[in-house]
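Pilot study result, target chain (187 residues):
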Amino acid sequence: IRNDYLDVDALESAAMAEHFAIEATETALTARIPLRKTWDDYLATVDGHDRKELRRKLRNAETKANAKFSCAQSEGEVLESLDRVFGFMKQAGGAKGIKAQWTYRPMFRRAAGPLVSSGRMKVYQLHLEGELAAGLIAFPSAQGPQLWAAGFDHRFARWSPGVVLFGMAIQQAIVEGAAYFDLLRGE
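Predicted structure:
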């Protein structure tokens, strides 16, 4: 977690009050995308080829697959969306699929209610052809959304649901006035 997302003094004070100690260790830098005031201003910062591909994929998904972006924010919506996202991750297979089924799903079922009710978690959703095609778990912050994990339904792979969802989520973050789009740790 970046220092500007966390009140370290308050955390240390709360930990000490409960007889815990805090140790901060930098393990890796997180990928953070600086945003601009408008979508067009943001796109101007993207490599020409990538900008063209992003526009093409968004246009195709919107015109040919009726792409719709939404955000699950109530506890019921988030729980339903999380279940689907973890199902998509399981569908991908491998270690991520196993963790989605046996670790992430039960952990998030327990944590989702308090996180959602305090405004600290939501799930971005992409619908294609009238069905939920992808989801992205986000933790809102004053600087912008922190993104934890995503999954998509492989039946919709031809529409590049991951790219489209991230593009639409970046657009939403810009509309909300976010300074950054934080990808947390990983690629």
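One observation from the pilot: The two ends are 16 Å apart (CA to CA). A full batch analysis is planned for the follow-on phase.
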